[in-house]
Amino acid sequence: MTSDIFFFIVVGFCAQIVDGALGMAFGVLSTTSLLAFGVSAANASAMTHVTEMFTTAASGLSHAYHRNVDWRLVARLAPAGMIGGAIGATLLANIDGKVIEPFVSAYLIAIGLLILYKAFRPQNRREVRDWAVPPVGFCGGVLDAIGGGGWGPVVTSTLVGRGHDLKRVIGSTNFTEFAVTLTISITFVVTLGWSELNSAIGLIIGGVIAAPFGAILVKRLPVRALMVAVSMVIITTSAMRIF
Fold this sequence. Notes:
This is Probable membrane transporter protein. Pfam families: TauE. By secondary structure, this protein is an all-alpha fold. The chain has one domain. It has helices at about 1-20, 25-35, 40-65, 70-95, 95-120, 135-145, 150-160, 165-190, 200-215, 225-240. Helix 1 (about 1-20) packs parallel to helix 9 and helix 4 packs parallel to helix 6 (about 135-145). The longest helix is centred in the C-terminal third of the chain and has 27 residues, at about 165-190. The two termini are about 30 Å apart. The model has no long low-confidence stretch (mean pLDDT about 80).
């Protein structure tokens, strides 16, 4: 049990360091690791989101302190993301884990490829169209719940591609993710029960310890190199789960 908790602490710490610096990847990294460890798809997603209630709160407050948050963007993203998250969690909790696992792994590979693509895509600065923000938040919430991750890769990459400032997008998606994660976690607890989620304690410890550093690292680390590394880890481990 001690070694298991240590494993979860390390996973939570590493995933949150990357997520805080990039505005994405805590969910996909944690879920991919848990799936490789033998956790079912529904429980892996549930554990990840219960953990993210704590890590996103800490990370979001850190980004707010460092003035990386666009509050207008948060107000547009949060409601749509919460609705999408509740729908996605309900669907996943009522599907056989053995049936859904290959699809979850395939989804994670797609997210890994998306992150890799975004790492080498030149930034196209143009006027932002606000009408697209709620649909992006809704899709991000649904996919995040079903895949155990995806809010950051889907929402952050899309908004940056549409012309939002990178640092504000990272801070805002991190802050908004708390509301989305809270909704998803409540849905999972209602459908699965808390007893299945005890192992999330290790993820919480590791993630909360790492959370304050993300807001600082976002200004200092080479983003492209990190994104390439994250995408390779996600693609490789998910592919191993499929084959």
